[in-house]
């Protein structure tokens, strides 16, 4: 019992919402009460938006993005295809983050994670074969490895670089440095050292 | 644009989820990605739970609780009716909180807020008339005013006490005191003074 006194419908809704990241039982209860209070303006639209998403959302067979068509809107955009730029990311959230940053026309490839021998994640568990195939057959001129700056992320970047070496495509990675708006005092030494090494003319 | 690159279905879902209390655009995006990843085990059940809730959830005409029937399960429970105990709360969340506390058989009355002249909330905006009617016609022997210990809450409690004075029903309020597990050092002086005044034998 989630701690309420209506029908099982409300209980079940609370339990399902509590499974979303960032929500727990308490905030799920608050969310359900809010939904009930705003039934016509929020609960009904949310119910139909979810129904539509269940029916239409799929994973792009080409790049791993989520969309309502496959190949997705990004993979079929002539401007992005013409750019020849392919950005490799760990997951869809990273793709969305880069798109929000307005980085210009680029294609993406979603790995679906990082290599992690300790967790039993090998190359065959990630979309690496499909990446190699895309580079082999497509008009890709440059690949940016936009993986996280973690040990697993960097391991994955090295592995992919090895796999793609023979195709003569340019491979780069995101710059390390001081985040915009960041204070030096709060940065770790590794980042500071990298930022100094990669200093640019003012 | 919520910052993604799929169809409008995903965008709309993010925007609606971001309107839930406790969620913002960032956590709504994370929630939607989680839903898409767990399509069969979470997104589909959540969509149908919402559909069922839209169809079935209503406000109890008697007490203001939310349930799938009206009068609700609480109002029609013979054990609760026999108790003669009516607990007045500000909103449904408070009712749920008391039920989780396992306080035993009791009826409830949900006011829907507190009197607040500054915000233009008068007695006619709350379920006070229906409370008076319930006390007038029902077998209520005791009323507990379980409103928040705020100025508005206490004002509301006084107003309700005035309205019910003529019925000769016993009216009490929740005890003030030290929260279970609470440290004295962190409590305000008002609570400490009340807790001392209402001290009990050990």
From TrEMBL, chains A, B:
This is Recombination protein RecR. Residues 84-179 form the Toprim domain. Transmembrane segments: none annotated. It holds the Pfam family RecR_HhH. PROSITE patterns: TOPRIM (PS50880). Keywords: DNA damage, DNA recombination, DNA repair, Metal-binding, Zinc, Zinc-finger. Belongs to the RecR family. It comes from Maritalea mobilis. GO terms for biological process: DNA recombination; DNA repair. GO terms for molecular function: DNA binding; zinc ion binding. InterPro entries: DNA_Rcmb_RecR (IPR000093), Rcmb_RecR (IPR023627), Rcmb_RecR_Znf (IPR015967), TOPRIM_dom (IPR006171), TOPRIM_RecR (IPR034137).
């Amino acid at each position: 019992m989630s701690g309420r006194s209506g029908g099982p419908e409300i209980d079940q809704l609370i339990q399902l919402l509590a499974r979303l990241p960032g929500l727990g039982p308490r905030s799920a209860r608050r969310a359900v009460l809010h939904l009930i209070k705003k039934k016509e303006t929020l609960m009904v639209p949310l119910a139909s938006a979810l129904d539509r998403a269940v029916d239409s959302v799929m994973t792009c067979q080409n790049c791993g993005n989520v969309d309502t068509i496959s190949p997705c809107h990004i993979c079929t955009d002539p401007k992005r295809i013409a750019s020849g730029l392919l950005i490799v990311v760990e997951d869809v959230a990273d793709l969305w983050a880069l798109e929000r940053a307005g980085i210009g026309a680029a294609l993406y490839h979603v790995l679906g994670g990082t290599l992690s021998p300790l967790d039993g994640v090998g190359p065959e568990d990630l979309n690496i074969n499909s990446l190699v195939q895309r580079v082999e057959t497509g008009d890709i001129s440059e690949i940016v490895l936009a993986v996280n700056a973690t040990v697993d992320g960097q391991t994955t970047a090295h592995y992919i670089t090895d796999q793609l070496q023979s195709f003569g495509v340019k491979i780069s990675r995101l710059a390390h440095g001081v985040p915009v708006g960041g204070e030096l005092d709060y940065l770790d030494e590794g980042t500071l050292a990298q930022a100094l090494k990669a200093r640019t003319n003012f």
